[in-house]
Design a protein that fits this description.
The chain is of the alpha+beta class. It has 10 helices and 14 strands. The protein is elongated. It starts with a helix and ends in a 23-residue tail after the last helix.
């Protein structure tokens, strides 16, 4: 699912903003699904939204930063009128303003209206009568993804709406996911976007799944940008350790000791993998050394499913070469930095308790 989401993006930078992750409690992890487009949770709606269309083909999408509801009068406002009819004209003016906005939206040809601000009950029912879907108080990030995917341009006014500011996509659908409803925009004509909906029984489980999914997305993005891969499961680490040991045997002096220590440090990755999987790390490391040194199998790594070793390249357990290179370089630089510290100075805390007997001022 993560690979499909990243492959669906056409952006050369594979922007992480184009992949949305939504969490829906309930169901199992197998109920999670990928939307090849934009999806977001249905926002708060007033009465009348049930009469709006739930599925549209080739919709025209209008994005607004306009409030479409009647505002309550200010408590400190003061209006002086001479006749009762003047008050009626003031009230009618408010209704005329909002109806004018609604007529301008309808005249633009939009069939889906999304607003950053609220859409009141009057506008909701008005749109429903004309088979127009609307959603107010849409989250900024979701709205931005809709803009990139559909080509819609946010408008701060309903006047002079042209076809150029309207977005489009192949299909729009409001779908029930668990106890929530989600608005899904698919077959988008603009920048490709994807949304992953995570399901799970417990909130803590979903949060952990989101963190794991984020890590997986970053790895896949890095792999797509830099297609060079190396076998995972500790295979490349053990092979590097073997190469460093062989080279250390050709070096005289203290340098050989440092190289052997570096080679031993590289074995920490397969040792940690075996330990975290609950297996005997000493036994697995011995098997790995045998496969790499005696049989010269550079792709042999740890198989956490069987508790033994296997060809991780054949099992598609890969790691991006760039990630592995950066990890080794960063760890080496950190170790060198620590070793370069030859002395530490600890400043005693101030106070009379730290003053030694016989010192001046005691």
């Amino acid at each position: 699912m993560t690979t499909d989401a990243c492959l669906f993006l056409e952006d050369s930078n594979l922007s992480l903003d184009l992949i949305g992750i939504k969490k829906v409690p309930g169901g199992g992890m197998s109920d999670s699904f990928l939307v090849e487009g934009v999806g977001f949770k249905k926002t708060f709606s007033y009465a009348g939204f049930e009469q709006q269309p739930k599925k549209l083909e080739n919709p025209k999408i209008l994005s607004l930063n306009v409030e479409l509801e009647l505002k309550s009068e200010s408590e400190k406002a003061e209006i002086r009128i001479q006749e009762v009819s003047d008050y009626a004209s003031i009230v009618d003016a408010e209704w005329e303003i909002i109806y004018t906005k609604l007529e301008e939206i309808h005249a633009s040809g939009a069939t889906v209206v999304l607003s950053k601000l609220a859409i009141g009950d009057l506008a909701t029912q008005w749109f429903a009568d004309r088979q127009i879907f609307c959603a107010g108080r849409v989250d900024d990030k979701d709205l931005e993804r809709v803009h990139q995917a559909t080509g819609a341009v946010m408008q701060a006014s309903t006047s002079d709406l042209t076809q150029e500011v309207l977005g489009s996509c192949g299909s729009f659908e409001e779908k029930q996911v668990g106890d929530e409803r989600y608005n899904l925009f698919t077959q988008c004509t603009g920048a490709k976007s994807a949304t992953i909906v995570i399901r799970g029984g417990a909130e803590q489980f979903i949060e952990e799944a989101e963190r794991s999914l984020h890590d997986a997305i970053m790895i896949v993005r890095r792999t797509l940008k830099n297609s060079t891969c190396v076998p995972g499961g500790g295979a490349i680490d053990m092979e590097l350790s073997k190469a460093v040991k062989q080279y250390a045997m050709t070096v005289q002096g203290k340098g050989q000791f440092f190289m052997l220590a570096f080679a031993k440090a590289l074995e920490a990755i397969p040792r940690t993998l075996a330990k975290n999987a609950g297996f005997d790390c000493t036994d697995l490391l011995n098997k790995l050394r045998y496969e790499h040194n005696a049989k010269n199998d550079p792709n042999c790594g740890i198989d956490i499913e069987t508790g033994s070793v296997c060809d991780t390249w054949a099992k598609f357990v890969w790691e991006p070469a760039l990630v592995k290179r950066n990890a080794i370089v960063s760890a080496t630089e950190a170790a060198c930095l620590i070793l370069s510290i030859d002395e530490t100075i600890k400043v005693p805390e101030s106070g009379k308790d730290n003053v030694k007997p016989g010192a001046p001022g005691s």
